[in-house]
Amino acid sequence: MEDQFLNYLFDKPNRKVSIPSNEIISEWAKKVVHFLFPESSGKIFASAEELKKYAIELEHDLFGIISKSCELQHTDCKETSMRFFDQLPELYRILNTDITAIYEGDPAAVSRFEVVRSYPGFYAICFYRIAHLLFNLGIPIIPRILTEHAHSRTGVDIHPAAIIGEYFYIDHGTGIVIGETAVIGQYVKLYQGVTLGALSVRKVLAGVKRHPTVGDRVVIYSGATILGGETVIGHDSIIGGNVWLTESIEPFSTAYHSPIINIRNTKQTS
Ligand SMILES: CC(=O)OC[C@H](N)C(=O)O
With helix as H, strand as E and coil as C, how does the chain read? Predict the structure, then answer.
């Protein structure tokens, strides 16, 4: 991360910015999450207006961060932070769909509150969704700092540019990679160790779609690796554990390995 920061300055040595530390940026995002989902199982905001009324401090902090990080004029920074702020009610709604997906999809989840407070998958999704909003607003570097913070804390690496639908479910969030140009539909479930990656990492492919498209209601079990920008997983499909897939599959498919497993009983018989 430090390298990234130095390179960023190095790219434009004359830039007059002093980006707040990664900790300040991550703390801001943590405050956003805590604001939306405080001590109880989640504050119910009566209306978008009520939510925004209480979120004014978050907007002010974001303004401070982006005005130090971007080469935007003061008024543009204010407009950008206000646009983020305007989308908070929608962020809250979408995160609630993710909580529902995890709570209802996992028999081990005893409450929505448990999902919010203890699931690394939900933590990573929160940071991804905040970062994605900032990315869409054209804010440089901060989205990546946020998703890399979540990555370092959870092992779940979601690029801020990836597009992910509502009701996103990650269970046992660890070792998951979702690349920059991945597109994921609604009600998708991922287990630990899943990679949605590129088939080639040549630098000239920057900006080209390199990562898979995953349809609605797809379940991808642990350790599966799906690669390639043209790889499409049709909706309602199931990808079994440890599957290595570099080609598209039709909707309602099941892709699984059928390895030959030799089981030998080593108990000595006299
Ligand atoms: C997730 C993944 O494929 O990463 C490889 C490379 N960073 C890229 O984005 O293409």
Answer: CHHHHHHHHHHCCCCCCCCCCHHHHHHHHHHHHHHHCCCCCCCCCCCHHHHHHHCHHHHHHHHHHHHHHCCCCHHHHHHHHHHHHHCHHHHHHHHHHHHHHHHHHCCCCCCHHHHHHHCHHHHHHHHHHHHHHHHHCCCCCHHHHHHHHHHHHHCEEECCCCEECCCCEECCCCCEEECCCCEECCCCEECCCCEEECCCCCHHHCCCCCCCEECCCCEECCCCEEECCCCEECCCCEECCCCEECCCECCCCEECCCCCCCCCCCCCCC
